[in-house]
Write a structure and sequence with these properties.
The complex is a heterodimer of chains A (about 325) and B (about 375).
Chain A (H helix, E strand, L loop, with lengths): L1 E4 L5 H14 L3 E4 L5 H10 L6 H13 L5 E3 L2 E4 L8 H4 L1 H9 L5 E2 L2 E3 L4 H12 L6 H24 L3 H6 L12 E7 L1 H4 L8 H7 L2 E4 L6 H9 L8 H16 L4 E7 L3 H16 L5 E6 L5 H22 L10
Parallel strand pairs in A: 1-2, 1-3, 3-5, 4-6, 7-8, 7-9, 9-10
Chain B lengths: L2 E2 L6 H12 L11 H10 L6 H15 L4 E6 L9 H11 L5 E6 L5 H12 L4 H28 L8 H15 L3 H16 L9 E7 L1 H5 L7 H7 L2 E5 L3 H5 L4 E2 L4 E2 H8 L11 H13 L4 E7 L3 H17 L3 E6 L5 H23 L11
Helix pairs in contact in B: 1-6, 2-3, 6-7, 6-8, 7-8, 12-13, 13-14
The chains are: A alpha/beta (about 325), B alpha/beta (about 375).
């Protein structure tokens, strides 16, 4: 059976996990690969105009796969941590994929929900495995193997590889290797690591001689500690990471400046942005720029703003001189 | 302590009744106007959802009117609504207003905090009198909801345009003035008699249902009087959300006449999981409307509303599958009334032609997706 994994949204986080699980179960996995101009265009024309950019990209990936596969794999992630939720769009994603691909194509969508305990998740994963093989040992082994590879992938992200690098297992070309400036590029995985919609922001920053710190590279302990000071808990899982990373960066001066990547019109991010900007101001105003991307974002305007921001940081650093040492090496 | 709260349809009847009963100081925020919207859009985050901006505008106008304690409901769902209070507090603080925000959270883990907050708000009144006041206010709201429903059902028969709306306004006033259960009982009979006595004419009937995000469905100023317009265009209107239904924790909807479970089950073939807010109910109620022989469904959603965006991307499937026209209206501070009216007019025409064709048993083309 040919199973397609659309390369949008949560693929940027769990792609390795899904791929190796399906592979180990004996399915033939077809990926839609990186986002291209034609994927974006087809997605934009098919998706609701009010959807956010990554959802439109996701639609494009679904459309690119739909004639090549026997089934699509789009899990429903309700919650990935106790007492938190993912964005509503993740909850409705399998149904949206079904609406995009048309009635004929089956969508495999195990429901992962940590509100109802671990057992229901194991069951969801296992019963999905039964679609491919009736050998329970094989399913369990596949699960364990996939989870190991996923952990390795996340570890590589933590060490400072980008999505592609971590997928392919490179160990050179780190995002952060002690250049003169260090900038935090913080946002959803699918916003930061998608080279097409971000116009290879990470590579461009690298070529400007700037080190990049992503939300993954900020230690989880620091993020959680920074979040504890908020009067109201943030209840979106991925926004917790983003807000935590920004607040930790700002508090401990992990970076010289922050680039906050948002896609238009991301719901949770619009709320988090108010919170982060205000808290950052209270903690001594680390330079922060918010970049809002959509399908109309022009490369020129985008680049100019990045360059201006980096120049500003560079000048600021020269003026302050060596007064402030780097607090932490990542 | 001068307490205020944002507008939401007939919520003011409930809230002011509670405060009147307890003789507490409160300030009714000025009625929604264009200025409310402008204030909200100026201070609110760029692509935050529409209700955040309008309620923010209400808060600013209430503070200008002298309020110093703002009540807002909070929670923790996938929808952004749960984080409104905190965000608005930050925004208003930044803008330099002096006030105190009281977010009321109704989840089990936060009950002690809720009790403490209510303790402060009731200012020395006993818990029993508070409970009594709330119970009485809710029975008022229940009456208001039934009156609104009656108005929706009969507006298309008006002999003089706007007669039902005028009668409904008088009803609101009478309900607001009732001060005991006995008076409320009397008012109930009088108001229903008044609404029924509005002069009627004969008119061809089409049935239109309204689904969508609760704030926009309940708040006539911001949904650009969709209900009224539909009535004038000749539609018997039913809506899926009423205030007391929404406040009821059990999921029962006595006014709308179905249980939440029913609409969730109806949505199953299209949307299989709760997506926060009213997303799944928008889809489910569309299916239920079709089963009840409605000719069309108007779907109201605020721009960038996450659950309704999902519903909107799934509704074309429902529309095509069941053969019921669905019109999605996306509303934000830029939406013009003329544009909405034109679309409603075209939509009711379409629904009418489809009804006639169905009565004559003419085969219809597939639904276009709006």
């Amino acid at each position: 059976m040919k199973v397609g994994i659309p390369g949008g949204l949560l693929y940027f986080r769990y792609g390795k996990l899904w791929n190796s699980y399906l592979h180990a179960l004996g399915a033939e996995v077809v990926e839609s690969g990186e986002t291209t101009r034609s994927i974006l265009t087809s997605g934009v024309s098919k998706a609701e105009s009010e959807s956010c950019l990554p959802v439109k990209v996701f639609y494009g990936h679904v459309l690119a796969l739909k004639d090549k596969v026997d089934a699509l794999f789009v899990p429903r992630l309700v919650s990935v941590k106790r007492r938190t939720h993912t964005c509503p769009k993740m909850l409705g994603l399998p149904d949206m994929a079904r609406a995009a691909a048309g009635e004929g194509l089956p969508v495999i969508s195990p429901t992962i929900d940590f509100h109802s305990g671990l057992w229901s998740n194991y069951r969801a994963v296992y019963s999905m495995g039964r679609l491919f093989t009736s050998n329970p040992l094989r399913i369990i082994n596949a699960g364990i193997k996939a989870w190991r590879e996923h952990r390795l992938y996340l570890e590589r992200l933590t060490l400072g590889l980008d999505h592609r690098g971590a997928l392919e297992g490179q160990t050179d070309r780190l995002l952060c290797e002690g250049r003169e400036l260090r900038v935090g590029v913080i946002g959803h995985h699918y916003n930061v690591y998608d080279t097409f919609t971000t116009m290879s922001l990470l590579d461009r920053l690298r070529s400007m001689g700037v080190d990049v710190v992503t939300a993954d590279m900020v230690p989880e302990k620091l993020r959680e500690r920074a979040l504890k000071r908020l009067p109201k808990d943030i209840y979106w899982s991925y926004e917790r990471e983003i807000a935590g990373a920004i607040l930790a960066c700002s508090r401990h001066r992990l970076v010289d400046g922050i680039i906050f990547m948002i896609s238009f019109p991301c719901g949770p991010d619009s709320i988090i942005r108010v919170l982060c900007e205000q808290e950052n101001r209270l903690m001594g105003n680390l330079p922060m720029i918010t970049l809002v991307m959509d399908e109309h974002t022009g490369e020129g305007g985008f680049l100019t703003r990045i360059e201006a921001f980096v120049d500003m940081l560079r000048r600021r650093k020269e003026r302050v001189g060596g007064m402030r040492e780097a607090v932490m090496a990542v | 302590m001068k307490i205020s709260w944002p507008h939401m349809g007939s919520l003011e009847v409930v809230m002011s009744s509670v405060f009147e009963e307890l003789h507490l100081d409160y300030i009714l925020p000025p009625p929604n106007t264009q200025r409310t919207l402008e204030l909200g859009a100026r201070y609110g985050p760029e692509f935050a959802c529409f209700p955040l901006k309008t309620t923010l505008g209400n808060f600013i106008e209430a503070i200008e009117g002298g309020a110093d304690t703002l009540i807002m409901v909070a929670g923790r769902g996938p929808c952004r609504f749960g984080y409104y209070a905190e965000t608005q507090r930050r925004i208003l603080n930044d803008a330099g207003f002096e006030f105190q925000m009281v977010p009321l959270e109704f989840e089990p883990a936060k009950i002690p905090a809720l009790v403490r907050k209510l303790q402060d708000l009731k200012q020395g009144h006993s818990w029993i009198s508070l409970a009594r006041a709330i119970k009485f206010a809710l029975s008022k709201a229940f009456l208001v909801d039934r009156l609104e429903q009656q108005a929706l059902h009969q507006r298309y028969l008006d002999k003089e345009k706007g007669a039902t709306t005028a009668a409904l306004k008088r009803c609101y006033k009478m309900v607001g003035e009732a001060d005991s259960y006995a008076a409320l009982k009397r008012v109930e009979e009088e108001t229903f008699a008044m609404l029924r006595s509005v002069r009627r004419t004969e008119r061809e009937k089409i049935k239109i249902g309204i689904v969508g995000e609760f704030y926009l469905v309940l708040e006539p100023f911001f949904n650009l009087q969709v209900e009224e317009q539909l009535g004038y265009l000749g539609a018997y209107v039913e809506r899926s959300i009423y205030l007391t239904d929404w406040l009821r924790p059990s999921g029962e909807n006595p006014v709308a006449g179905h249980h939440d479970r029913e609409s969730e089950q109806a949505a199953m073939p299209y949307l299989t999981h709760f997506v926060g807010g009213e997303g799944i109910h928008s889809v489910g109620n569309t299916v239920l409307y079709q089963r009840h022989g409605f000719d069309g469904v108007v779907h109201l959603m605020p721009f960038t509303c996450m659950p309704e965006t999902i519903a909107k991307s799934i509704l074309p499937l429902v529309s095509r599958g069941l053969g019921i026209p669905v019109l999605s209206l996306v509303i934000d501070e830029m939406t013009g009334k003329a544009g909405v009216d034109t679309r409603l007019e075209a939509f009711t025409d379409l629904a009418r032609f489809r009804r006639r064709a169905r009565e004559k048993k003419i085969t219809l083309a597939l639904q276009p997706a709006f």
